[in-house]
Amino acid sequence: MFGPPADVPPADSRPRVVLGVGGGIAAYKACEVLRRLTESGHQVQVLPTAAALNFVGRATFEALSGRPVHTQVFEDVYDVPHVRIGQEADLVVVVPATADLIAKAANGLADDMLTGTLLTARCPVLMIPAMHTEMWEHAATQANVALLRSRGVVVAEPASGRLTGKDTGKGRLADPAEIVDLARLLLARSDSLPRSLAGKRVVVSAGGTREPLDPVRYLGNRSSGKQGYALARVAAQRGAQVTLVSAHTVALPEPAGVDIVHVGTALELRDAVHKAAADADIVVMAAAVADFRPVTTATHKIKKSDRDPDPVALTRNPDVLAELVQARAAGRLPASQVIVGFAAETGDESGDVLTHARAKLARKGCDLLVVNAVGEGQAFEVEDNSGWLLAKDGQERPIALGSKAQMAAEIWDFVHS
């Protein structure tokens, strides 16, 4: 039941999360999800299936959550826990959601504590699938997933990669950090992951480009790539077919259900974006693309000497965002394509952040500009973000401070409206 363990003072304001654990090999990753949720201030009640306890012992879940763990409805019957837990929950997350568990949920079966709770819960439900590719792609599983989604359950897209044994393919559990990110997004806004981008082809650029000076040194910037990755992650979970053109990032987990193209320099990013944008419905340029690159790159490490170093001659990189707008106007990209730019701005003596952003929107000609005020502890290398949405038709909307996933959801809401 919810409520703090005996040695913890009441904390009714903490979000109440039910963590359901299915009986698959990926059940061990639920421990990391549990740890991240509890450490970020959530009350977590773990409800494993009996099969899940073959992979992770009851003691592990109890130690990490600080709460007793039950699998059957006949435990503590006097309190009717399968009803009470569902009624009190703010969110139910199922990690992993096996093919069997998805089938039971879709058909309303309730033969244990977890499936009974799924029937009584009236809060958002997030199911994170994990199974072999053949099981995920089977018509029965796909029909069950479609049925659950039609009822408002968020069934996430699985990742691709190494599965049990030597197999590789789609069906891998999403990274625990990504799962917690989606859970927090649903807690902040339960309507943040509708399948509103189903059938859309989306291109997102992310991270910071690096322009080499020699084999060791480069010109770069402070972009972490977190906002672009959040945009790609949320778009994929909203049903889009997403290509993420990723420059340098801070070792971020690859978003589930996303095709990733890794690049290094601005010219490489330019080529990859133009190629991916050829048949895209939406292009979002969230990457921090270097404005300049060295005219020449040394083939050996530039040695330190007693004399002053030679000045580094720079040349301007192409403006990829402006090129996309020009290509659309010339008919080389779909006329209906929506192009979104990003602007990291600071105020100065000639104007504030929005003054410079409005001028940039007019200069670039994109449909929407996402504006971040940058500075110490703002935009770059932080977990949360805020800003403004500026549209070419004159609409302006502030985005309150929140997680980068929340900002991504607001951007996709605006694009889709």
From TrEMBL:
<dbReference type="GO" id="GO:0015941">
    <property type="term" value="P:pantothenate catabolic process"/>
</dbReference>
<dbReference type="InterPro" id="IPR007085">
    <property type="entry name" value="DNA/pantothenate-metab_flavo_C"/>
</dbReference>
<keyword id="KW-0285">Flavoprotein</keyword>
<dbReference type="InterPro" id="IPR005252">
    <property type="entry name" value="CoaBC"/>
</dbReference>
<feature type="region of interest" description="Phosphopantothenate--cysteine ligase">
    <location>
        <begin position="202"/>
        <end position="417"/>
    </location>
</feature>
<keyword id="KW-0479">Metal-binding</keyword>
<feature type="region of interest" description="Phosphopantothenoylcysteine decarboxylase">
    <location>
        <begin position="1"/>
        <end position="201"/>
    </location>
</feature>
<dbReference type="InterPro" id="IPR003382">
    <property type="entry name" value="Flavoprotein"/>
</dbReference>
<keyword id="KW-0436">Ligase</keyword>
<dbReference type="InterPro" id="IPR035929">
    <property type="entry name" value="CoaB-like_sf"/>
</dbReference>
<comment type="function">
    <text>Catalyzes two steps in the biosynthesis of coenzyme A. In the first step cysteine is conjugated to 4'-phosphopantothenate to form 4-phosphopantothenoylcysteine, in the latter compound is decarboxylated to form 4'-phosphopantotheine.</text>
</comment>
<comment type="pathway">
    <text>Cofactor biosynthesis; coenzyme A biosynthesis; CoA from (R)-pantothenate: step 2/5.</text>
</comment>
<dbReference type="Pfam" id="PF02441">
    <property type="entry name" value="Flavoprotein"/>
</dbReference>
<feature type="domain" description="DNA/pantothenate metabolism flavoprotein C-terminal">
    <location>
        <begin position="197"/>
        <end position="415"/>
    </location>
</feature>
<keyword id="KW-0288">FMN</keyword>
<dbReference type="GO" id="GO:0004633">
    <property type="term" value="F:phosphopantothenoylcysteine decarboxylase activity"/>
</dbReference>
<dbReference type="InterPro" id="IPR036551">
    <property type="entry name" value="Flavin_trans-like"/>
</dbReference>
<dbReference type="GO" id="GO:0046872">
    <property type="term" value="F:metal ion binding"/>
</dbReference>
<keyword id="KW-0210">Decarboxylase</keyword>
<feature type="binding site">
    <location>
        <position position="291"/>
    </location>
    <ligand>
        <name>CTP</name>
    </ligand>
</feature>
<keyword id="KW-0511">Multifunctional enzyme</keyword>
<comment type="function">
    <text>Catalyzes two sequential steps in the biosynthesis of coenzyme A. In the first step cysteine is conjugated to 4'-phosphopantothenate to form 4-phosphopantothenoylcysteine. In the second step the latter compound is decarboxylated to form 4'-phosphopantotheine.</text>
</comment>
<comment type="similarity">
    <text>In the N-terminal section; belongs to the HFCD (homo-oligomeric flavin containing Cys decarboxylase) superfamily.</text>
</comment>
<dbReference type="GO" id="GO:0010181">
    <property type="term" value="F:FMN binding"/>
</dbReference>
<dbReference type="Pfam" id="PF04127">
    <property type="entry name" value="DFP"/>
</dbReference>
<feature type="binding site">
    <location>
        <position position="301"/>
    </location>
    <ligand>
        <name>CTP</name>
    </ligand>
</feature>
<protein>
    <recommendedName>
        <fullName>Coenzyme A biosynthesis bifunctional protein CoaBC</fullName>
        <ecNumber>4.1.1.36</ecNumber>
        <ecNumber>6.3.2.5</ecNumber>
    </recommendedName>
</protein>
<feature type="domain" description="Flavoprotein">
    <location>
        <begin position="16"/>
        <end position="181"/>
    </location>
</feature>
<feature type="binding site">
    <location>
        <position position="364"/>
    </location>
    <ligand>
        <name>CTP</name>
    </ligand>
</feature>
<keyword id="KW-0456">Lyase</keyword>
<feature type="binding site">
    <location>
        <position position="342"/>
    </location>
    <ligand>
        <name>CTP</name>
    </ligand>
</feature>
<feature type="binding site">
    <location>
        <position position="360"/>
    </location>
    <ligand>
        <name>CTP</name>
    </ligand>
</feature>
<dbReference type="GO" id="GO:0015937">
    <property type="term" value="P:coenzyme A biosynthetic process"/>
</dbReference>
<keyword id="KW-0460">Magnesium</keyword>
<dbReference type="GO" id="GO:0004632">
    <property type="term" value="F:phosphopantothenate--cysteine ligase activity"/>
</dbReference>
<comment type="similarity">
    <text>In the C-terminal section; belongs to the PPC synthetase family.</text>
</comment>
<feature type="binding site">
    <location>
        <begin position="318"/>
        <end position="321"/>
    </location>
    <ligand>
        <name>CTP</name>
    </ligand>
</feature>
<comment type="pathway">
    <text>Cofactor biosynthesis; coenzyme A biosynthesis; CoA from (R)-pantothenate: step 3/5.</text>
</comment>
<dbReference type="GO" id="GO:0071513">
    <property type="term" value="C:phosphopantothenoylcysteine decarboxylase complex"/>
</dbReference>
